[in-house]
Structures are given as structure tokens and as C-alpha cells.
Amino acid sequence: MRNINLLWPKAGQVLLAAGLRLNTQRLVAVRTQTPVLSNVWWPMRLLEQNDNYEKALILWLNSTLGLLILLSHREETQGAWMHFKKPVLSEMPVLDIRTLGVSQMKHLVDAYDTLSKQPLLSFPKMAKDPVREMIDTAISNALSLPDLSALRNLLAQEPVVCLQALSSRVTLRRGQ
Fold first, then answer.
1. pLDDT value at position 125?
2. Which residues of the chain fall below pLDDT 70?
3. pTM of the full predicted structure?
């Protein structure tokens, strides 16, 4: 048994997946009401404790852009199953939520509050997931980015995500 006084300081309300099975899981990050420890999620604490910062970060991590960056930092294991190591994740770029303006932060927090209780489809179905589309729309609107639909559609067809060969899945049209 480990000393609880050594473990409990590592608890956090923001949890990032330590491993993902892309064909069945739906989220890469979650937020809890109280700090927790886990053996399948990496608990994190922001340097500046702030509920709004946590909500904006969770929304970002579960967006297409967040997922794309996370997948580029994976350690492949078997098919759709992958792991994420703490040292690699600590170097992963994320949205700097401290630099957001008041209206940007409000937009993201409102989106989180609205969407956090909505069920998401699994990652291979992200192209047709209305909730994931709303997450991406909130990110795009808050950050003045273009529509992320094309990127989300392509990511859903990525072989590591859908577990199918690329040549049998990709259907690009002129202009995409």
C-alpha cells in the first residue's frame, strides 16, 4: 500500500485518458466535481485553479483539433488501442486558455455547460456526431477559425480511428 499523503496531492478534476480504444471510447478528457485519482486516466491540476479554465480546456481537448494533436502524441500498442505517456503529454501543445478574452471564454464555458451532459458517439462516428459538431463549432466561433467539418470527416476516416484501410474509406471531392 502507498502512503495516501503521497498520492492524494496528485488528484485532479481534469482527467486525460492514459489509454484509448478509439473504436469504442468517446472522450479523451473529462472533468469531475471533486479531485480524484485514477488508474486509467491521468489526473491533472491547472497551475491556476479556475473552473472556467478547466471547462474550456476539456472542450478543447475533446474537439477535433484537440483529438488530432493528442493522436499525434500517442504511443501505439495494438490497432485502435493506444497509450499516452505523461512525459510526452507534458510537451503536447494545447490551447492557452489564459490568453482568451472574456467573450471567448464565456463562449467556450457556455458551450461546455450546454454540451457536457450530451452523449457523444464513438470516434469512428465523429463525422456524423451532432454533439462533436457543436463542440467544433464552439471552438471555431470562439477562436475565429474556419469550419472544422472537413477535418473532422477526414479524421474519422483515418485508419487508426476507423480500423479500415485508407483506400477503401476516403472519398474526397474536388475542393475538400
1. 93
2. 1, 78-80, 165-176
3. 0.86
Please tell me the total count of domains within the chain.
1
Separation of alpha carbons 160 and 81, rounded Å: 9
pLDDT in tens, 71-111: 888 887 766 678 888 888 888 899 999 999 999 999 999 99
Identity at 4, one-letter amino acid code: I
DSSP string spanning 140-173? Answer: HHHHTPPP-HHHHHHHHHSHHHH-S-GGGT----
CA distances from 116 to 5, 64, 109, 151 (A): 32, 16, 10, 22
Q: Is the dihedral of CA 40, 45, 51, 54 positive or negative?
A: negative
**Domain limits at 135?**
4-168
Q: Which residue has the cell 479554465?
A: 53
Cβ proximity of 61 and 30 under 8 Å: no
Q: Is residue 15 part of a domain?
A: yes
C-alpha span between 152 and 113 (Å, rounded): 22
Classify residue 20: in a domain, yes or no.
Answer: yes
Is residue 46 assigned to a domain? yes
